Amino acid sequence: MFLRMLKFPVEGLETRAGALHNLSGKSCPWQDKQKKAKSMAADRQNLQDAFLNHVRKTKVPVTIFLINGVKLQGVITWFDNFCVLLRRDGQSQLVYKHAISTIMPAQPINLYDGED
């Protein structure tokens, strides 16, 4: 951290658990904004999870295009932060998300109710 590199003490500032604080004990304004943004993002379900969960629950067949050009087809049966499990003809394939370019459902899907 920058403050640790300074050879002289900076009056009014100290570090606590890697965070910058003033002597009043309050965190700096930019850290408050970061905390608020993180909590707001956690409240909303992200589009990727909503999409994958919808095609998984409704068992909509999908075509997955990998970044190397390979085309995979099947039904998504499971997913997490790093992988998607694709099932076709009784066989399952574990596909890493970093290898996926595009996921195309076989039919139109509606993720959210209501009109925006």
From TrEMBL:
<dbReference type="InterPro" id="IPR047575">
    <property type="entry name" value="Sm"/>
</dbReference>
<dbReference type="GO" id="GO:0045974">
    <property type="term" value="P:regulation of translation, ncRNA-mediated"/>
</dbReference>
<keyword id="KW-0346">Stress response</keyword>
<comment type="subunit">
    <text>Homohexamer.</text>
</comment>
<dbReference type="GO" id="GO:0005829">
    <property type="term" value="C:cytosol"/>
</dbReference>
<protein>
    <recommendedName>
        <fullName>RNA-binding protein Hfq</fullName>
    </recommendedName>
</protein>
<dbReference type="InterPro" id="IPR010920">
    <property type="entry name" value="LSM_dom_sf"/>
</dbReference>
<dbReference type="GO" id="GO:0003723">
    <property type="term" value="F:RNA binding"/>
</dbReference>
<dbReference type="GO" id="GO:0006355">
    <property type="term" value="P:regulation of DNA-templated transcription"/>
</dbReference>
<comment type="function">
    <text>RNA chaperone that binds small regulatory RNA (sRNAs) and mRNAs to facilitate mRNA translational regulation in response to envelope stress, environmental stress and changes in metabolite concentrations. Also binds with high specificity to tRNAs.</text>
</comment>
<dbReference type="InterPro" id="IPR005001">
    <property type="entry name" value="Hfq"/>
</dbReference>
<feature type="domain" description="Sm">
    <location>
        <begin position="49"/>
        <end position="109"/>
    </location>
</feature>
<keyword id="KW-0694">RNA-binding</keyword>
<dbReference type="GO" id="GO:0043487">
    <property type="term" value="P:regulation of RNA stability"/>
</dbReference>
<dbReference type="Pfam" id="PF17209">
    <property type="entry name" value="Hfq"/>
</dbReference>
<comment type="similarity">
    <text>Belongs to the Hfq family.</text>
</comment>
